[in-house]
Description:
Elements: H1 12-21, E1 25-29, E2 32-36, H2 43-51, H3 53-62, H4 73-80, H5 90-104, H6 111-120, E3 124-128, E4 131-135, H7 140-151, H8 155-168, H9 175-183
Antiparallel strand pairs: 1-2, 3-4
Helix pairs in contact: 3-5, 3-8, 5-6, 6-7
Amino acid sequence: MMSPxxxxxxGGIRLVERLASRGVTxxxxxxxxxWRPRGALSSADIATLRAHEATIAVYLAAGPGVRPHAGxxxxxxRFTCDPRPELPDTSLWEGVLALTYEIDGGxxxxxxxxxxxxxxxxxxxxxxxAGIGLVAGERSGEFAALQAAYLAPHAAALTAVxxxxxxxxxxxxxxxxxxxxxxxxxx
Length: 187
């Protein structure tokens, strides 16, 4: 148990904010995080950066306008659980939801909210040779309109999230999911 004086562990987005307040600039270059000025990070800063590299990389790729979420650990645990665990792609969804919650879970119009809502409607993630794709769930007739309305504004961040998850999680795609994605025109 943490003593009352001890600070909670620092997350990736909090590190970015703290470093910015010290005049340190982080950027993504060739899928690696770089910082300026070069000697500005302590060994503790570097360790935190490495521990939260995926979140920081997606946050940097998402660009300006992203509002990080400052919710409690209990809220994070509750909201990042897959709302449709009976579907075959739960492990992929938990990774995607955790990453997007850290980035903009506090923004009701953000990527986390859009993905969580689509998942509640049964949307599935499938892996292909080209990466991760999102396919319709039970409301397949409405899926294109929902995708255009809620995901299109977050296209850059969504691409970054899917790329990061594809690289960091072992393949768990279902055969049915791959076939469904191909039927919808994805490679």
